[in-house]
Amino acid sequence: MNPSEQPLLSASSLPVNAPAQRREAIHNAAIGQPASRDPYLRLEAIDKNFGTFVALRDVYLDVYPGEFLCLLGPSGCGKTTLLRIIAGLEIQTSGRVIQAGKDVSRFPPAQRDFGIVFQSYALFPNLTATQNIAYGLQNAKRPKAEIDRRVAELLETVGLGSMGQKYPAQMSGGQQQRVALARALALSPGLLLLDEPLSALDAQVRVKLRTEIAQLQKRLGITTVMVTHDQSEALAMADRIVVMDKGYISQVGTPFAVYQRPSNPFVANFIGVMNFLKGTVVAPDQVRCGNIILKAPQNTVPVNQAAMVAIRPEEIRVLTTAAAQANPQNVILAEVHSMEYMGTGYLVTCAPDGDSKESLMIDVSTFEAKGLGLGNGSTLQLYLPPDSVQVFAA
Length: 394
Hints:
Low-confidence stretches: 1-36
Number of helices: 11
């Protein structure tokens, strides 16, 4: 096996004046974490201004021992600034950073216990892989025998045991990122920070490496915070995801929670693909969309208020005419406007109920599409399962 192919394992936005209880609810929303467990890293009321520009506002967040946490959001949302504040590469305007029970808010990077991997690898081009990994250990004045043993161990751990004497220019992007990861782990830090570590790699290498990094993190049990704008990376790698928007934390939760139960339209639209239909709440569990009344048992929007109905494309089912007539609840008649072939199936865009201003996207397998004889202009009976229908205030 080529060394580069070896696995790494060798074995809702809150306003500034929100009540304190609501603000603190964000960092207490540690889904899946024992309530009595103390966080390893705590961010309290972090603000960051660049002149008049507000980059971060009132950020509360707990990261638990051994957790893999992803900061996810669009460009400019503040996620990289927050990571740099954790590392001490930026100093917050106000607020506190507490690591392992110690307030490190004003500590320089050299006095904080972390390893970091950058998007650009940041390897020394004139040093071999071995020398790059050894650099921090040498600066820490570790004995040569210890350095040699630790470097050899890390090269094996990241699947580069035979490549220690190669220079960065002689290595692929994936191999260079493995060296950068080994260097970050060399001093056995308490915290690993990953700044979009996979974004410079091609798609196949990125998918492979993300799995291996997540496996390695679990084996080492190192508390990890990763910045990414890639939803699939966050969903695949994280124990919890922090979705950020315009300097605020919009939602914190497990990958399942933020995908299946987004807290607001921004999260719903940013994570994955989401359909939205305009409507009005006509009963506690019913929303009228055009000529159709949809049952929505999860609705929390008051009656008579304008609303946005949301549902994922994969949740919508295509019914036969007979099945639709037997159970017409939450069934919408729709006309196919376009079909996008995705390899495993089609992403089909339909106009519901003859409304050219609205659209619904649905996932249809290749097998199902053939059976239905799908094409532009086809008419479909679409079933929106009530438990999958989410409702947001318009």
